UniProtKB/TrEMBL annotation:
<dbReference type="InterPro" id="IPR000209">
    <property type="entry name" value="Peptidase_S8/S53_dom"/>
</dbReference>
<dbReference type="GO" id="GO:0008240">
    <property type="term" value="F:tripeptidyl-peptidase activity"/>
</dbReference>
<protein>
    <recommendedName>
        <fullName>tripeptidyl-peptidase II</fullName>
        <ecNumber>3.4.14.10</ecNumber>
    </recommendedName>
</protein>
<dbReference type="InterPro" id="IPR050819">
    <property type="entry name" value="Tripeptidyl-peptidase_I"/>
</dbReference>
<keyword id="KW-0843">Virulence</keyword>
<dbReference type="GO" id="GO:0046872">
    <property type="term" value="F:metal ion binding"/>
</dbReference>
<keyword id="KW-0645">Protease</keyword>
<dbReference type="InterPro" id="IPR023828">
    <property type="entry name" value="Peptidase_S8_Ser-AS"/>
</dbReference>
<comment type="function">
    <text>Secreted tripeptidyl-peptidase which degrades proteins at acidic pHs and is involved in virulence.</text>
</comment>
<keyword id="KW-0479">Metal-binding</keyword>
<dbReference type="Pfam" id="PF00082">
    <property type="entry name" value="Peptidase_S8"/>
</dbReference>
<keyword id="KW-0720">Serine protease</keyword>
<feature type="domain" description="Peptidase S53">
    <location>
        <begin position="219"/>
        <end position="602"/>
    </location>
</feature>
<feature type="binding site">
    <location>
        <position position="561"/>
    </location>
    <ligand>
        <name>Ca(2+)</name>
    </ligand>
</feature>
<keyword id="KW-0378">Hydrolase</keyword>
<dbReference type="Pfam" id="PF09286">
    <property type="entry name" value="Pro-kuma_activ"/>
</dbReference>
<dbReference type="InterPro" id="IPR030400">
    <property type="entry name" value="Sedolisin_dom"/>
</dbReference>
Amino acid sequence: MRSTALFVAALSAGLCVAKPFQNRAYAVKETHLLPHDFKRESDAPSNHLIRLSVGLRQGRFDELEKHLYETSDPDHPRYGQHLSAEEVNELVKPGNETLDLVREWLHEHVEPQHIECSPAEDFMSITLPVAKVEKLLDTKYAVYRHVDGSKLIRTLEWKLPLHLHEHIDAIQPTTSFFRTVPQARTLVEVPDQSSESVNSLSYKHVKNPTVAKVCDTGGVTPLCLRTLYETVNYVPKVPGKNQVGLANYLGEVNNRSDARIYLEKYRPEAVKGADQFKEISIAGGTLSQFPATPGTGVEGALDVETILGISWPTPLLGWSTAGDPPFVPDADNPEVDNEPYLTWVNYVLKQKFIPQVISNSYEDNEQTVPISYAKTVCSQFAQLSARGVSVIFGSGDGGVGGVQPGGSCLSNVNNQTSFIPLFPSSCPYVTSVGGTVGFTPEVVAYDPRNKYSSGGGFSNHFARPSYQDAAVKSYLATIGDEFAGLYNSSGRAYPDIAAYSVNYTIIWNGTLRHVDGTSAATPTIAAIFSLLNDALIAAGKPTLGFLNPWLYKKGYKAFIDVTEGSTLGCNTTGFQATKGWDAASGFGTPRFSKLLKAVGLDDGYGHY
Ligand SMILES: *[C@@H]1O[C@H](CO)[C@@H](O)[C@H](O)[C@H]1NC(C)=O
Ligand SMILES: *[C@@H]1O[C@H](CO)[C@@H](O)[C@H](O)[C@H]1NC(C)=O
Ligand SMILES: *[C@@H]1O[C@H](CO)[C@@H](O)[C@H](O)[C@H]1NC(C)=O
Ligand SMILES: *[C@@H]1O[C@H](CO)[C@@H](O)[C@H](O)[C@H]1NC(C)=O
Ligand SMILES: *[C@@H]1O[C@H](CO)[C@@H](O)[C@H](O)[C@H]1NC(C)=O
Ligand SMILES: *[C@@H]1O[C@H](CO)[C@@H](O)[C@H](O)[C@H]1NC(C)=O
Ligand SMILES: *[C@@H]1O[C@H](CO)[C@@H](O)[C@H](O)[C@H]1NC(C)=O
């Protein structure tokens, strides 16, 4: 990590900076209330390792945001002119004073060669034992236990020397209780493994497939999804120039053997895909074929099988990021504790080439995340978006809150009942995908068997971005005072769009399973937009990049409105689907022929 250069820069900075005039006294930089689902258990073991990410104040984020909105606005002359890595880095690079002061402080505690910098130098990371972090941030870490029994090592307050307060925006892991929770709900194993419960037509070759012929609510296959969303006749033209990415966390694995069985059965021509997709380990993320914890691997199987089943032969790249490990007190080799999103996004931002669409099915309650962390991670997503990446997240499986085990509807801020929005869906620079069920018509998903309820809501951390102003205002007018006080009507509203999400047929551990969740809708949307990018590249046009400004202005016309069902939760119906955009299904579900038309690629009669 260019340690020599850093070191020299630091030495000269050390000589130039007028230390005696700085206020070296520490003051509280951030406090965060303990989320209701956690209880303090004990002091933290002093030798537990933490990979601390220090987020420096970015130089010209406002300018980056302006570029992002211009290049993703279909009516702007710069539409589609995505920024290069260098351009993005130049915009967010912290000012010299910020860099000098932060380095000087870190060098008092760590050898310069142990500091890792992001390409824009907006992040500096160091791995230290708890005892040293406690000294660095004048704090005390503790072990906190979640209601589900897992543990995290965090603190509720940390300090910084006063002169650094305006130069550092966020440091984690400190006060963030965020956990990358997969939004897949496993259903019981399908007892009949010969899969007769799945309509046999749904995976055999069918001439002129129709939804009526190939879709069965009892078990959804790629042929059904491709027919429903009209990609079934589309043959990718430039797969080598286009990629789709998939993020795994928490020891989730993408099992090639399961993917192979799945593709053999449901998309035979794509079976090579099971051996061809690439996998990259970040910060020691597992690439094992066998999940370390029983039960994991379902999310990974759902994601990889769904994407390959729809977008093959578009190359798939999977990242597995370690981190946020549930703390195990007596483990001999504790994993290094880090913030998985920051670790992942900073890794990806370092790459010259990034897949044009990224599927990410992991969310947590926004209130587990301190606002500084949310803003910092969200601004890293803005960097990805500015580089022309469509960043896709699921809207969550707990409705407006309180329906999944351990879920509550208590606000951290005032202990009042409240709808609980999710992060990163609440970040305005990502596209959030809700889930539907049923074919004629599709309605907002609820499955009483596992209480999966598609999520939707309004952020408390991020204000409503202007691209969705008109759509959200007209929705708010239709709901009037209903739910007043339970949600923040001025916040970023989600989801933006939706896709099918119940009874996905997957193969996991060699057996047929059915799975629900916005985790199913997310890879489906990622795969469909990846095919649309393929068509755009083949036609010599730029890829879509950040979808939302286009969606809210023009793209919504390519979606079939979902007008029934709601985001059930908190003992209410939750937000109801209505005509037009709503906080339950966004604009509804996509149709590929209409998408082609919306991006100006219609050839008149669907002969793409
Ligand atoms: C910051 O430092 C770099 C290299 O030391 C220098 O080229 C640049 O002009 C400086 N920028 C400002 C705004 O001082
Ligand atoms: C999901 O599939 C099961 C059978 O496997 C069926 O009983 C159930 O009704 C299906 N759910 C929906 C919403 O269609
Ligand atoms: C996978 O299936 C085998 C039986 O085929 C079983 O022994 C094993 O426990 C299963 N693995 C998991 C993680 O459930
Ligand atoms: C729903 O209402 C019941 C009965 O009043 C209550 O026990 C429960 O805690 C409520 N659930 C939520 C999520 O608020
Ligand atoms: C919320 O309630 C808990 C105990 O139930 C209490 O410790 C905490 O101080 C309360 N927080 C606020 C903001 O009232
Ligand atoms: C509601 O959202 C706005 C805009 O993001 C924010 O400034 C405000 O603090 C939020 N209110 C609450 C109670 O969180
Ligand atoms: C993963 O792949 C292996 C074969 O490579 C298989 O035996 C195993 O059951 C698969 N699934 C899981 C969940 O480990």
